[in-house]
Structures are given as C-alpha cells and as structure tokens.
C-alpha cells in the first residue's frame, strides 16, 4: 500500500497540504489515504437517513428569530437587499434582537474581547456577569464564550472548500448516534481511519481568501445558535438565565458586538457562583429522528401528522443549533476546525497509528463537538411541551406529551416521545346531599364522553347541564382517575327550585283589553329528574274582557337531549264592536272560550355556545266556542253560535349559530302544520289544511368609535297556506310582533309576511360611570317595519281581502342583570293600504302614533 509523505506549510491559516516530490512507497495491511469516494461503507452506521433540509408544508415556518432595530448597511449604504427593518416588533419568547449603532469608538471596543469572524462580521463580546468570586467566575465564563464563538468563526471559504467539507458533515451525522452518552467512548479503528481520510480530502483542496459581504442575512441563524449555546451554558444545572444582545455597526469595520448580562429579574451575583459547575458539560443526546408514540389513536380530532413532524423537525433543529444554511447542519468553522485537528493528530502520530492516550484525546475532541450539537434532557422536555401546546390548541385539552422510559445510551440517534391524551373515566357531582337532583340526571350528559379522549367539545355537556331547570355549574375540575391514563371530572353545581316572574304590557286589543298582566311560576325539577312544571295566569283591562290560564310540563327522557312536553291553555274572552249607521247603532258582541292542548317531544341535535339545532314533533287539539250577538240600539237582533275544532300535528326545526368573523348571531325557525278541521262556516268544511310558518332573526355587532356597542337586528316572520285558518292560527299584521305602528287587530289574515330592521346602541356603556353600572344596559335606536297579509274569503265565490302596512319608530330597552327588563317603542305609520280602499276600521283602531310598553321582573 502507498503512503504519501506530506509536509505542512508554516502558515496555519492556510492549512493546505502540499504533496512533496518525494514519494515513499511500501506495503501495509490497511489503506488510509483513500478519498471519501473510495472509502468502504461503515458496517456500524445506522440505516436511517437524515431528514431532508427542506421543510415541507403543513405548518408555516416560524418567523425569523431575529429582529433588527434600524437598517444596518454596508459601506456602500446598502442593507443587503433586506428591505425596511421593523424597529417596533421584537419577537416574544426571548427572540434575538440586533440593534444598529452608527459607529464603535475605540473606548467602546476596548471593553470587548475579540471573538473571531462569522460570515464576514468581526465578532467582539463582553461578559457583564460578575459574582462574589471576584473574577474567577467571569474568567471561566469568558473561556467558554470564546470557545462557543470560535466554533463558528472561520475565514471565508470558496465553493470548492465548502463542497469538500460536506462528506465530513455527512459522516459525523452517521457517527454521532453510535457514540455512547454515558462516558467518553473510544473511536474504533475504522472510525478514526475514516476521519483521517476525510480530513486529508479537505486539506488537499486549495484555500482561497474570498471576501464575503457583511450582511445580517448571512449571520442571523449562526448568531441565533451562538446565543442559544451561551444561554444553555449559563442555565446549566439551574444556575441562572442571561440576556444575550447584539449590536451591529460598519464603522470602523463590520462589527457585531455580543453583550452577556443578567436578566432584570435576577441578580448578577446569582450567576456563576460555582465555577466547578459551569465548567461541567451536561450530557446531551444526538438526535437524527424523534418519533411520537400514540399519535395514531387520538380519535377524530383535527391533527395532521405532517404538522407534527414539522414541529418536531423545527424544534430539533432549533435545540441542536442545526444550521439549515450550513453544511449538513454544521457550520463551516466547526468542520474546518475539526479537520485541522484531525490532520494535526495524523501527522503527530506515525501515519495514523495512535497510542491509547492519543485515541482518547481524539475521541474526547469528537465528543465535544457531538455534545455541543446534542439535545439535553431538559430540551427534549421542551419539545414535548411544544407538542402538548399544539394538541391542546386543537381540542385535546388534557393532552400531555412526555419523555417515556427508553435506553438513551443505545438510542443511536432515534428518540421517542409519547402522548397521553387523557381519557374521561368518570364524572362525580359534589354536594349531592344539598341537591334535589338525582346524580344520574346530571352526569348522563357526559355519557358520550366516558371512555374517550377529553377534548374541548366536552363543553357541550356543560351547556346541556346548564340548560337543565334550576341547575348551574359553578366549577369543573379534572382529577386523576382510577386507572392509568384516565381522569375524573368533578363538578360543583348549585340548584334553585322555584322561579317567579311578573309581566305587564299594553300589547292587547281594544276589543279584548289593551293592558295585560301576567304572573308565572316555574317549579324547577319537581321530581328530581330534570323536569319543569310551569303555570301562569293572564288578565286584561281597558276593558277587562279576557282571562287566560296555562299549564306546561317538560320531562327529560332517554338522554339529556330528549324531552317529553305537554301543554294546555284556555282563554275566556269577550269582544264588543259598535258601528254607527245613521240614527241607529248596530253592534256585535262576541263571547267565547278557546282550548289548546299540545303533546309531543323535543330533541336537541346540537347544543353548544356556537351552534344549536333542535326539532319538535307535536300533536294538538284546538277548540273555539263562540257566541255572536247582533244588537240594534242595545236590543238583540240575532244570535249565532259556532264551534271550531282542529285536530292537528306539526313538525318544527330550530337553528341558531354564531359567526365570529361577522360578529353575528343568526336564528331560523320553520314549521309544517297540518290540521283536520270541523268549521261552522261553509268554506271551512273542505277538510284538512296545511300551513307553513317560518321566522328568521339576525344580530350583528357594530361598534361605534370603540365606545358604544351597537347591533343591527333584522327579523322576518311569515305564514303561507291556501286554506282559511281558524282564528288561533291566523297571521296578525300589526301589534308588538308585527308592524308596531298598527294595533294587533288592525288586520288579521290567513297568509302573510313581515320584515323589520333595527339599529340600537347601548349608551349606558358609553357613560363615564359605565364601570359602576356594568350590569345595566340601555339600548336606543330606530327601526323600520313592513308587512303584507291576505285574508281568504269565507265562501267559494267571495273576494279575498289584503293589507299592506309599513311604519317606523324608535325603541328604548333597559335591562338590569337580565332580571328586570323594560321595553318601549313609539312608532308612526308610513303605509296603510287595504283592499277595500277605506281606512275607517284602522282609524277606529287608533291609526296614528302607537306607543308600546312592556315590563318584566324575574325573581327566585
């Protein structure tokens, strides 16, 4: 075998090997001077390849960890094509900050130590950390800082030199996983020979002294790695954390000054108070690949495995100081320095034949580079924390990512993390002895979640529980469950059993009583199963002609989303209308009683704060007994009695949802109703009738000048049918739920449509004392309303009537703590078109300005 007898030049900066003219040839049992292309593949190298340098999609790459304050320009006045530099956006989480200084004075530079050259910049540094050791500790720290900077410092290299360094970087990535972390291992003969070959290949390439431009874009990632390593050194064993800042200037040269100082919340004396500790290099793990165990069994959550791999790749590179713009993740300075060292060892030995002491020294030198580029156990836990944050942001609110037990000593570059999503094992309700509720009635809302990963949609169950009569969740805490990986949810709830309300308004008609008074009582959870019994009584005055009573009952069945409902109400009324005709007075006195009975069930399809969907199926029986007397000057002329009965059914659907982007809430209701009728009038004897009802509501928040909270409200209500409907199913065009400029009895039809738009603002929130009256709101604003309705003729050959009303006005609504509410409005008609062409009836009903008033108070 041939050995080349080589001499090294005196100039250490060039470090180029020159082949002498004398070649000594002799045979040996091993080949050392082979080029990397001729070297055999290592039988000890791991089979896994390194991850690609190019980031894949999935997660947008993080912003650069550098924020520049002021444009740092070269001597020609250019800033390297980097564009405007943001001086007001330093990154959070300890982001690197480079500030501009016009020039360094000689006095300022005298305070700094020389650190070498990095990417065209002259590096100087200053360590401001001091302690009670009076200079001993700073001296230790300065040596370490100098070593860190020097590992990234080198003269500019040519393209050929950079290309020659790549095989060494590739081999180190294969070699480092093979090295034991528990102690300094000895390199094998093959490993040392391979390093000698690679060093020879590098040294054989002529060095060039190309001058690289001093651009911040070239140095940012290297500086970020230097900063990370300096901080790691000081944080070692929990000594202290430090601030590492950078100042750049082109005068007198392209200089980057590094300053190390104590954080504001720490005292400098707390740092480096044990020089023996800070000289210690903690154990690190070489990482080529990190695998997350258990990531495939997380249920239907929105998590991309590509996103997970991108997070791991990004975190691994950040923690290890991986230089994406370097050579296989290493800096050129690191590889040149190692190559020079290996060359020195080779020529100091007898052609690569190392003594045990020389092999130990070389092994320690290689391990020093490996240790500096490895990950500490604390940093591995930080990667786990980043993954935990990712999973929790996507719904797994109890997810925990941790470092499982594994053989780190033989990891060979492959490490493992594991995820524990948190499985809901049980639910417990505290204070049951103070509740009338049965525990099962509460916890069954969580039945769909037992045995599954806890995610943020568990709040849907909270929403369901809070909708139970009288029940309110005060807190919910997760505690360790009975089995490993399980959690137990502990609920604290409060209960009230009764609720009363008083209501008064002027929403009635002149015929049956304008002023109305209503009292209601709710018995919350009378049986302990989450049921509700409600009763109420309504009385009218001016005139006092109407009395109404109702009784409602609701009982959960099957699960927390399904309930059985039953309701009954009856209304006894009297209505008199007088029409003057010349000398006589003709009046109609209508007396009657209505009965309304409904039963069925309601099902909540979706119930949460963002979306609610439900449907109901009801069967109904409605009856109206009427007695009509025609009077002439008080004398009875005729009498007519009638009974209207309807057996019907209805299917209804309700949806409301929140659109955060629009700051809007939308609600929709739709129902299909069918009834078999037995009406007294001829045209109403045509059998069953189908009619459709629907309504829509939207509320959109529109802040005014950032002070007044205003909202734009739109409403729509409609009924369609081609049949004559009984009075209790007809469409009222006016009144508080129609065009408010007209009374409820102004026009009542069988089919119709109504629309309104209203803009109100809470002026209470704009007052100087708004902090004192936070529970009070006062909404004021204008509105416009319009509607159309058709009343079908009672006989087949009759003519249908119709009306078109419109009006505008202003509303005022006061609310206190949601328990006390006052609603008022004043409105004027703008359109009063009817098919008869006469508004006499409307004028008799008070056509003109309308004032509506409602007051409600709830107490429990």
UniProtKB/TrEMBL annotation:
**Which Pfam families does the record match to this protein?**
ShlB
Stretch forming the signal peptide = 1-33
Could you confirm whether the keyword Isomerase appears in this record? no
Q: Which GO terms describe its cellular component?
A: type V protein secretion system complex
The record's keywords, sorted A to Z, are: Signal
Offer one example of a GO biological process linked to this entry.
Answer: protein secretion by the type V secretion system
What are the boundaries of the region Disordered?
35-92
All copies of domain Haemolysin activator HlyB C-terminal, residue ranges: 485-754
Recorded GO molecular functions are: protein transmembrane transporter activity
Q: What is the protein named? A: Haemolysin activator HlyB C-terminal domain-containing protein
Which lineage ranks, top first, belong to the organism behind this chain? Bacteria, Pseudomonadati, Pseudomonadota, Gammaproteobacteria, Cellvibrionales
């Amino acid at each position: 075998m041939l050995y080349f007898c080589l001499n090294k030049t005196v100039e250490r900066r060039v470090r180029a090997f020159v082949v002498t003219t004398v070649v000594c040839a002799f045979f040996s049992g091993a080949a050392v001077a082979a080029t990397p292309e001729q070297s055999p593949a290592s039988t000890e190298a791991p089979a896994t390849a390194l991850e690609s340098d190019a980031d894949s999609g999935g997660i947008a790459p993080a912003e650069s960890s550098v924020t520049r304050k002021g444009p740092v320009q070269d001597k020609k006045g250019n800033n390297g094509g980097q564009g405007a530099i943001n001086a007001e956006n330093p990154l959070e989480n300890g982001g690197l900050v480079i500030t501009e200084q016009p020039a360094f004075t000689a006095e300022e530079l005298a305070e700094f130590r020389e650190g070498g050259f990095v990417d065209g910049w002259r590096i100087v540094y200053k360590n401001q950390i001091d302690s009670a050791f009076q200079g001993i500790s700073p001296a230790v720290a300065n040596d370490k800082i100098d070593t860190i900077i020097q590992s990234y410092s080198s003269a500019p290299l040519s393209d050929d030199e950079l290309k020659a360094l790549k095989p060494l970087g590739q081999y180190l990535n294969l070699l480092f996983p093979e090295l034991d972390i528990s102690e300094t291992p000895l390199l094998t003969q093959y490993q040392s020979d391979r390093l000698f070959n690679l060093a020879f290949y590098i040294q054989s390439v002529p060095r060039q002294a190309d001058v690289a431009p001093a651009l911040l874009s070239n140095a940012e990632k290297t500086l970020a790695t230097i900063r990370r390593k300096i901080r790691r050194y000081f944080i070692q064993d929990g000594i202290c954390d430090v601030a590492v800042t950078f100042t750049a200037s082109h005068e007198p040269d392209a200089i980057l000054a590094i300053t190390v100082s104590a954080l504001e919340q720490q005292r400098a004396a707390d740092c480096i108070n044990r020089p023996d500790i800070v000289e210690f290099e903690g154990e690190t793990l070489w990482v080529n690949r990190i695998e997350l165990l258990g990531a495939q069994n997380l249920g239907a959550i929105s998590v991309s495995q590509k996103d997970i791999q991108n997070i791991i790749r990004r975190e691994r590179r950040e923690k290890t100081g991986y230089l994406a713009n370097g050579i296989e993740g290493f800096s050129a300075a690191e590889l040149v320095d190692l190559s020079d060292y290996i060359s020195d060892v080779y020529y100091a030995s007898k052609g690569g034949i190392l003594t045990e002491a020389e092999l130990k020294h070389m092994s320690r030198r290689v391990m020093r580079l490996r240790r500096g580029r490895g990950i500490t156990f604390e940093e591995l836990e930080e990667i786990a924390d980043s993954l935990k944050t990712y999973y929790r942001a996507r719904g797994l609110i109890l997810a925990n990512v941790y470092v499982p037990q594994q053989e780190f000593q033989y990891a060979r570059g492959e490490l493992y993390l594991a995820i524990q999503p948190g499985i809901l094992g049980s639910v417990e309700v505290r204070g049951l002895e103070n509740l009338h509720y049965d525990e099962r009635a509460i916890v069954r809302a969580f039945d769909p979640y037992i045995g599954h990963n806890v995610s943020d949609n568990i709040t849907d169950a909270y929403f369901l529980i809070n909708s139970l009569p009288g029940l309110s969740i005060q807190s919910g805490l997760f505690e360790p469950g009975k089995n490993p990986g399980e959690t137990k949810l502990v609920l604290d709830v409060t209960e009230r059993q009764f609720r009363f309300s008083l209501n008064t308004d002027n929403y009635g008609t002149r015929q049956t009583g304008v002023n109305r008074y209503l009292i209601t009582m709710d018995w919350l959870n009378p049986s302990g199963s989450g049921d509700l019994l409600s009763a109420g009584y309504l009385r009218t005055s001016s005139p006092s002609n109407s009395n109404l009573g109702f009784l409602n009952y609701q009982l959960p069945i099957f699960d927390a989303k399904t309930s059985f409902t039953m309701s009954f109400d009856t209304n006894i009324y009297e209505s008199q209308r007088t029409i003057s005709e010349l000398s006589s007075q003709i009046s109609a006195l209508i007396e009657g009683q209505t009965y309304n009975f409904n039963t069925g069930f309601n099902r909540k399809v979706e119930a949460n704060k963002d979306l609610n969907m439900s449907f109901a199926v009801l069967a109904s029986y409605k009856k109206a007994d009427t007695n009509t007397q025609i009077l002439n000057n008080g004398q009875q002329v005729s009498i007519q009695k009638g009974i209207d009965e309807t057996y019907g059914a209805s299917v209804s659907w309700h949806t409301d949802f929140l659109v955060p982007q629009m700051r809007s809430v939308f609600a929709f209701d739709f129902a299909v109703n069918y009834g078999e009728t037995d009406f007294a009038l001829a045209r109403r004897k045509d059998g069953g009738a189908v009619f459709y009802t629907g309504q829509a509501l939207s509320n959109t928040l529109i802040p005014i000048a950032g002070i007044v909270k205003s909202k734009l409200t739109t409403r729509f209500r409609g009924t369609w049918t081609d049949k004559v409907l009984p009075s209790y199913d007809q469409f009222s065009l006016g009144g508080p739920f129609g065009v408010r400029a007209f009374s409820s009895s102004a026009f009542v039809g069988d089919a119709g449509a109504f629309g309104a738009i209203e803009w109100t603002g809470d002026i209470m929130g704009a007052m100087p004392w708004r902090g004192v009256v936070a529970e009070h709101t006062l909404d004021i604003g204008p509105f416009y309303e319009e509607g159309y309705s058709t009343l079908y003729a009672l006989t087949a050959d009759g003519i249908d009537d119709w009306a078109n009303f419109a009006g505008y006005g202003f509303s005022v609504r006061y609310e206190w703590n949601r328990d006390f509410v006052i609603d008022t409005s004043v409105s004027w008609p703008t359109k009063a078109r009817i098919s008869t062409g006469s508004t006499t009836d409307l004028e008799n009903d008070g056509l003109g300005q309308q004032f509506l008033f409602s007051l409600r108070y709830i107490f429990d």
